[in-house]
Amino acid sequence: MTTNTRETPQGDMVRFGLFTVVILAMPIWLMPFGAAYPDLMQKFAIYGLFAIGFNILFGLTGYLSFGHAAFLGVGSYTAVWSFKLLGMNPIPALLLAVVMSGAFAWLIGFISLRRTGIYFSILTLAFAQMSYNLAYSVLTPITNGETGLRVLNSDPRVLDHMMGAGEVDGPLVTNLFGMEMSGLPGFYFCAVWLLIGMYISFRIFRSPFGLMLRAIKTNQTRLNYTGISTRPYAQTAFVISGMYAGLAGALLCVTDPLAGAERMQWTASGEVVLMTILGGAGTLLGPMLGAGIIKYSENIFSAFNEQALHEIFAFLPDGIEAAVVSVAGLFVGEGWHLTLGLLFMLIVIFLPGGVIEGGQRISAAVTRLRGGGSGGSSTQPQPAE
Amino acid sequence: MGILQVQNVNKSFGGLKALNNVNLDITEGTVHAVIGPNGAGKSTLLNVCVGRLAPDTGTVLFGGKTLTGRAPHEINQMGVARVFQTPEIFTDLSLLDNVMIPTLAVRDGAFKVNAWGRVDGRAEIRDRAEAILENVGLGDKRHHHSGNLSRGDKRRLELAMCLVQKPKLVLLDEPTAGMSRHDTNATIDLLARMKEEHGVTKIIIEHDMHVVFSLADRVTVMAQGTPIVEGTPNEIKGDSRVQEAYLGGAHL
């Protein structure tokens, strides 16, 4: 029997502090992995934020939404419109994106949460696909269809003109009071939002509200007969996670002011599900880890091409080499999703709790080896989430 | 006038009449057992009381207010708690969290977004939850996962979750079903102690006569959706109609 000790506020502060250091030091410790360039780190931070928000819904309440990319898209379009109308300052763009995606999530949640389980998932998927198709067809005046929405020099950008920064030569880049949001500053801007998002997630996980969300996942019947109205709780969780997704979508546009409808496609919704499960659904750090692993592998595997494979397997005899390369070629480049699929299958089969569970098992094994088997399993505290 | 009044309640499932013009009056502070053969409508009666089923006709009054048409969480907030036949607990959570949830439900009502405080931030809430676990004999397991408990312990946990809310009325559906003799006796002791300490009104559905005669102040016997006899346990024991309907003529 495992013991479930409650985390102390002090312990949480230490954990959050460590997380902060690790995130802010990413440009240093990612160097040996060849991942320390800003574009990729921005993706880590943004998709981490997306997954952390998704985890508040899926990890805590167990409601599996297959339509969260819709909120990502709403956030992106809102942000670009904010750039177009107000100016290239990211702050109003982010705020508007969070508000818009929150409102959109409220509406979709209000309808979808009438059902649970697979029917809920299908409803959210249907809504996301509807949004995706609308963005391509009817809503073209807002979304600019296939071309994607971008900021033009001729756009009003009221605030920019008021500040006397209306005329820009070359491409328009978002800037925070003069600081351009690309490269390393862009990463740190995203990282700050990631940290804020993570801190809110910490608070929610430890709060009475979070406890109720967990209770929804475990036993809705009991919760109802305990005097709790479950629908508003699930609805709130849905809106919060939608706001996280909107924020992530807006950040994608802060680093690259272009919004396309493909961002709302169901594969994007599926990706955040993979990130969350891969890292460990319902854990605090898991979704961030999952997002990092997936974006990193995407970067590595999709960069390989036939040429690189030939170089790697050059030591093999000619006939075998050709065969190996043609097989391996399926798993890299465009086909890297095949690798991702295999990785995901392995995790779900052998580590249903995700990478975090793997870490817990290893640390438990280490403790057992060190302790020489004394103590027994009944007093073993569960490692922190 | 009793705390709970069931008035002319009818309920049919298709062609089957599960409840046929049921009238029941539960006196405050008593333990009222409802017994009867399988299919007599006992569980349906309980489900109508807690809002799981809506009666076709008739009303259920609790403290003078109608319960019919209200959602389960509203009925609970009015002071009616329910213990299920198979224990309904939060198996993923620790025992303490299991008891914290009903405690918070009493403090915060049916819905309140309290996302910034900590669950155990308020000492009096935690103390109350720990005291009730101690009371049902699960105090030393409070940090364990409740999914790993034995069936008897799960039942006790569910009872604790109900009691911590200080309800006015507790409905128990076969609280000792599938339990060993030892666990049954432990549950009887617990329920008896509850009665002395809390003075809560209870309705118990039970098959085990040992439990009924140990605990009940009043007994209602149901058969085919209708209460046929009501009285003290001793009156019931001697009633020939009961022996015919329920016990098939066997002597107690």
Short description:
Chain B: One of its GO terms (cellular component) is plasma membrane. The complex is a heterodimer of chains A (385) and B (252). Chain A is mainly α and 385 residues long.
Structure description:
With 385 residues, chain A is mainly alpha-helical. Chain A has a domain at 9-266. Helices cover 68% and strands 2% of the residues of chain A. Chain A has helices at residues 9-24, 26-29, 38-61, 68-85, 90-112, 117-136, 140-143, 158-162, 183-206, 208-218, 220-224, 230-255, 266-279, 286-303, 306-312, 318-328, 336-350, 354-371, and strands at 149-150, 175-176, 179-180, 258-259. In chain A, strands 1-4 form a two-stranded antiparallel sheet. Chain A has a two-stranded antiparallel sheet with strand order 2-3. In chain A, α3 packs across α10 (208-218), α9 (183-206) packs antiparallel against α12 and α10 packs across α12 (230-255). Chain A starts with 8 loop residues before the first helix and ends in a 14-residue tail after the last helix. Chain B has 252 residues and is an alpha/beta fold. Chain B has two domains: 1-79 and 167-252, P-loop containing nucleotide triphosphate hydrolases (Rossmann fold), CATH 3.40.50; 91-165, no CATH class. Chain B is 37% helix and 24% strand. Chain B is built from nine helices and ten strands. Chain B has helices at 42-50, 72-77, 95-108, 123-135, 151-163, 181-198, 209-215, 233-238, 240-245; strands at 4-13, 16-26, 31-35, 57-62, 65-66, 80-83, 169-173, 201-205, 218-223, 226-231. In chain B, α6 (181-198) links the parallel β7 and β8. The longest helix of chain B has 18 residues, at 181-198. The two termini of chain B are 32 Å apart. The mean pLDDT of chain B is 87. At the A-B interface, α9, α10, α11 and α12 of A face α2 and α3 of B. Chain A: It is found in: Cell membrane. Chain A: One of its GO terms (molecular function) is branched-chain amino acid transmembrane transporter activity. Chain A: Keywords: Cell membrane, Membrane, Transmembrane, Transmembrane helix. Chain A: The chain crosses the membrane at residues 16-37, 44-71, 91-111, 118-139, 186-205, 232-252, 272-291, 312-332, 338-356. Chain A: This is Branched-chain amino acid ABC transporter permease. Chain B: Keywords: ATP-binding, Nucleotide-binding, Transport.
